[in-house]
Amino acid sequence: MEHLMAIQQGVQHLEEFQFGPEGRTLPLCQSWRTKEFEESSRVLLAAFSQELKLKQMILQELAHTTVSDLPMIYLSCWLHQPFIPAQTRLTLEALLLETGHRPL
Length: 104
Prior knowledge:
Layout: H1 2-19, H2 34-63, H3 70-80, H4 86-99
Helix pairs in contact: 1-2, 2-3, 2-4
């Protein structure tokens, strides 16, 4: 995901170089400009990166637990996903619709 984010930033910089600070006049896919793709990708990357760190920590703790009740607590922490707010899901759905990966 970080690699895709870097590619998206490169496309944005290329469009700024070719078309000026306003960027491309026609949208890249449906209606979003490249800058909107980059902003949405940045939000998604931040949320999913934090969630990945949390899940890696839970996984490490689960591997070393000796109490039989702790795995259920870790499972509830795993399923809760506190670093992925509802706004993130909405942003992801909008991105999928915009690129044509999700039909209307």
